[in-house]
């Protein structure tokens, strides 16, 4: 029987468990720190279940432990987790070969979702942005209940690309849509929405990055795979894909536009933002959010384009606009919808620009690139196909305190085959070795005056 | 370049697209915006008269110069405004009586009727505060100018500063966006003095235009940097020449930046290409990474490489890559078998190996056939 040496060390407010070497490795993975996290509670539970299945446990202790862990509705304090684990480990030390009384819970807790929605970590639900690459970058899509803000560049219309894909995706999934724009006739914009690429066209990229085609070198172990996780039998058979590839040259079929009534609002006439807010409120009342989150039948989308455009009557009432955004965000939190709001930051005073950026849950910005810039062409691969740049400043993290840190925050917007919107990481072009320039002076490392903008 | 600016205006806009709009802006350091405006105006008028442009007529909204000035200007370039047959330019006169004071005084006192002057060339506008009315007058003039319903006309606005004195920014912005989206307007261009307004106003107008042409001094004067004699010569230089800097917003979303020098002469303004410094683009790229992705061709090539110990039991001779490029030769490499329980190799034939156990502590041979690991 293995001996487990347990000990507690109280140092300031960080209790640590001292364990035998073999258990430390498993515990380390779950990193119990002083400030426990709701998300970590689940992983602690899983660890408890898995390790006890290996090492077995007495039934009495296990049920008590089980109920202790389950009864915690809020984030457990660290010492409580520590104490529970202590009990568990004592129990592990006491008994051995018995049948495990922990049984794997069937994940019936996942809510039944309408097509077009996906479950995410920490109890959030995602809906697709309409651009597969953007969904991947954001970790699944736009979180339901969040406010997405896109900072436009007044020199390029790339925010329209994002909006178009977002709106089309909503119509494909039969999600109600509210669209507000400063033009007199917003309905005209609906004619420019793209249609999903049909399967007979070649998709822009093979989405099947089959990492597990089967083991190549360790092919002997295939015989040990019993019930494999059904993750790899992808959801490609579904008629409703979570995110479609949109062909920007094909307009959306009329049946989608007729099936779902799109609420169009013109911002030009509204002098008073409270009218617009009420309109949004009535729209959002169709998708209230319940606490038990059992099933979500529909989710809604709101798209507000160029919110502070100069031809809107309220465009110099900065505080009013800010309070509109604040109120919109609070209404969004209690409904199952996503709002995308685009605005040109150059038209706001700098302090308000910062305030608006802070209001966003997810903040993106698009930028134009100069045309025929030889330096950029030398610096980046694929410069010829690029139409602009997309920056991800902030990603919505609801229900968790852990931020999402991306490897890269700037992506190039390309139109593949002039049809499909593709986001790629910026990649440095190979430095031309044959030119004979030394490493210090070639390419981006040179000390020319232009390199102030590059950031390594 | 001024040439390409005029050419873009001449080509106009596509169906269903907003009309191209040009903002000409200057500042007190180099106050030649009006010269540039007149240059563009005369160029466009000559294109229209020659029939080379998309638009068939031009409506000029005159705020800061009288209509007769423009008539004289165009006449000096060979474009006759007053001839009723081929007249292609109409002027909306907002200079003579913008707020309608003289009109109202006429009724009271005994001022002469002023409307006779304007009637041949255009309409007199008496209320510039009402941008809706201004819009409808412009459209009315334009439609009167081009007879057919499908033809287009250009709109030139003398000075946006004067408009902004009387009307709010949002109404002026609304006017411009309505003009741009009107089906019959081919292009719009206007002049702005940037130091008369807040930054936001200039930014809004730039937001609404597809080309921004700024007139800048050749060298910026900075206070306290040079002594007086230098400053004087610099100012003198700035009064004769300057930089003409244009940003084009292209349809594919990229921005083209161009730079030229201009000279002010007796006859007008002349442009020539920039001599010295290049255009410096504003800062852009944060992190640029090395590409760690594989292109498609590279991925296919990688999957074709035969990895060592890969399952190759397809009947073909088994190849084990040993670091040399002898993969494709199809030599029979002997498979190496683990030591210990060695048996005769395929290639060696004939011999026998008898071994003795080293010690009894070793674990007895398991029942597993070690040959299970082999790829046979």
Automatic annotation (TrEMBL), chain A:
SUPFAM superfamilies recorded: P-loop containing nucleoside triphosphate hydrolases
Subcellular location: Cytoplasm; Nucleus
Biased composition (Basic and acidic residues): 199-212
Highest taxon of source: Eukaryota
Main location per the UniProt record: cytoplasm
One annotated GO biological process: tRNA wobble uridine modification
InterPro entries given in the database record: Elongator_complex_protein_4, P-loop_NTPase
Pathway(s) per entry: tRNA modification; 5-methoxycarbonylmethyl-2-thiouridine-tRNA biosynthesis
Annotated region (Disordered), positions in chain: 41-73, 189-212, 435-456
UniProt keyword Amino-acid biosynthesis, yes or no: no
Family the entry assigns: Belongs to the ELP4 family.
Protein name: Elongator complex protein 4
From TrEMBL, chain B:
Residue span of region Disordered: 331-376
Keywords: Cytoplasm, Nucleus, tRNA processing
Claim: Cytoplasm is one of the keywords in the record: yes
Entry keyword tRNA processing: yes
Pathway(s) per entry: tRNA modification; 5-methoxycarbonylmethyl-2-thiouridine-tRNA biosynthesis
Pfam families: Elong_Iki1 (PF10483)
Biased composition (Acidic residues): 359-376
Gene Ontology molecular function, alphabetical: tRNA binding
Stated family: Belongs to the ELP5 family.
Compartments reported by the entry: Cytoplasm; Nucleus
Biological process according to GO: tRNA wobble uridine modification
GO cellular component, one term: elongator holoenzyme complex
Name the UniProt record assigns to this protein: Elongator complex protein 5
């Amino acid at each position: 029987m293995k001996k487990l040496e347990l000990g507690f060390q109280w140092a300031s407010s960080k209790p640590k468990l001292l364990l035998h070497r073999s258990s430390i490795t498993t515990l380390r993975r779950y990193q119990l720190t002083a400030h426990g996290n709701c998300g970590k509670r689940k992983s602690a539970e899983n660890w408890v279940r898995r390790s006890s299945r290996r090492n077995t446990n007495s039934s009495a202790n296990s049920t008590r432990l089980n109920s202790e862990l389950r009864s915690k509705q809020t984030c457990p304090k660290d010492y409580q987790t520590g104490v529970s684990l202590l009990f568990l480990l004592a129990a592990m030390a006491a008994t051995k070969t018995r049948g495990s009384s922990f049984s794997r819970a069937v994940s019936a807790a996942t809510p039944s979702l309408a097509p077009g929605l996906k479950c995410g970590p920490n109890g959030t639900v995602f809906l697709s942005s309409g651009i597969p690459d953007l969904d991947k970058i954001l970790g699944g899509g736009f979180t339901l209940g969040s406010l997405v803000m896109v900072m436009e560049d007044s020199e390029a219309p790339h925010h329209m690309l994002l909006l178009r894909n977002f709106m089309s995706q909503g119509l494909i999934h039969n999600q109600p849509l509210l669209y507000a724009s400063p033009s007199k006739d917003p309905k005209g914009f609906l004619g420019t929405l793209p249609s999903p690429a049909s399967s007979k066209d070649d998709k822009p990229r093979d989405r099947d990055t089959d990492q597990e085609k089967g083991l190549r070198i360790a092919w002997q172990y295939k015989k040990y795979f019993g019930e494999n996780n059904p993750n790899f039998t992808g959801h490609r058979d579904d008629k409703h894909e979570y995110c479609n590839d949109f062909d920007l040259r094909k307009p959306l079929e009329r049946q989608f536009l007729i099936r779902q009534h799109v609420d169009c609002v013109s911002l030009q006439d509204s002098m008073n933002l409270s009218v617009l807010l009420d309109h949004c409120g009535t729209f959002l009342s169709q998708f209230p959010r319940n606490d038990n989150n059992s099933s979500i039948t529909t989710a809604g989308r709101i798209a507000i384009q160029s919110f502070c455009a100069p031809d809107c009557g309220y465009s110099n009432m900065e505080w009013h606009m800010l309070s509109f955004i604040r109120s919109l965000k609070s209404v969004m939190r209690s409904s199952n919808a996503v709002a995308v709001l685009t605005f040109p930051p150059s038209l706001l005073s700098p302090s308000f620009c910062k305030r608006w950026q802070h209001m966003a849950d997810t903040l993106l910005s698009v930028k134009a690139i100069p045309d025929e810039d030889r330096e950029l062409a030398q610096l980046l691969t694929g410069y010829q196909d690029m139409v602009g740049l997309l920056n991800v400043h902030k990603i919505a993290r609801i229900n968790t305190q852990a931020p999402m840190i991306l490897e890269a925050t700037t992506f190039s917007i390309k139109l593949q085959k002039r049809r499909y919107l593709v986001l790629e990481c910026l990649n440095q072009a190979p430095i031309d070795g044959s030119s004979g320039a030394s490493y210090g002076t070639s390419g981006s490392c040179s000390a020319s005056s232009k390199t102030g903008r590059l950031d390594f | 370049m001024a040439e390409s600016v005029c050419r873009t205006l001449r080509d106009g806009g596509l169906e269903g697209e907003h009309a191209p709009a040009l903002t000409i802006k200057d500042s007190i350091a180099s106050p030649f915006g009006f010269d540039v405006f007149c240059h563009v105006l005369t160029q466009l008028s000559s294109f229209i008269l020659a029939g080379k442009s998309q638009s068939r007529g031009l409506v000029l909204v005159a705020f800061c110069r009288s209509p007769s000035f423009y008539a004289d200007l165009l006449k000096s370039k060979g474009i006759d405004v007053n001839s009723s047959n081929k007249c292609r330019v109409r002027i909306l006169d907002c200079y003579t009586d913008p707020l309608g004071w003289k009109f109202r005084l006429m009724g009271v006192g005994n001022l002469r009727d002023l409307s006779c002057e304007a009637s041949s060339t255009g309409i007199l506008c008496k209320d510039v505060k009402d941008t809706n009315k201004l819009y409808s007058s412009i459209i009315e003039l334009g439609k009167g100018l081009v007879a057919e319903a499908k033809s287009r006309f250009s709109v030139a606005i003398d000075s946006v500063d004067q408009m902004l004195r009387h009307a709010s920014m949002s109404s002026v912005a609304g006017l411009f966006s309505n003009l741009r989206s009107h089906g019959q307007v081919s292009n719009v261009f206007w002049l702005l003095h940037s130091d008369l307004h807040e930054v936001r106003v200039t930014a809004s107008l730039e937001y609404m235009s597809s080309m921004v042409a700024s007139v800048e001094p050749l060298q910026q004067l900075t206070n306290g940097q040079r002594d007086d004699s230098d400053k004087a010569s610099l100012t003198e230089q700035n009064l004769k020449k300057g930089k003409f800097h244009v940003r084009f917003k292209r349809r594919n979303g990229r921005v083209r930046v161009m730079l030229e020098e201009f000279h002010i002469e007796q006859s007008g303004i002349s442009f020539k290409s920039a001599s010295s410094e290049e255009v410096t683009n504003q800062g852009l790229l944060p992190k640029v990474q090395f590409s760690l992705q594989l292109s498609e061709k590279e991925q296919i090539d990688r999957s074709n490489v035969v990895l060592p110990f890969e399952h190759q039991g397809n009947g073909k001779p088994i190849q084990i890559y040993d670091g040399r490029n002898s993969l494709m030769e199809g030599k029979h490499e002997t498979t190496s078998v683990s030591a210990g329980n060695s048996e005769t190799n395929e290639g060696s034939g004939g011999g026998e190996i008898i071994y003795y156990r080293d010690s009894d502590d070793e674990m007895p041979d398991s029942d597993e056939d070690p040959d299970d690991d082999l790829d046979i």
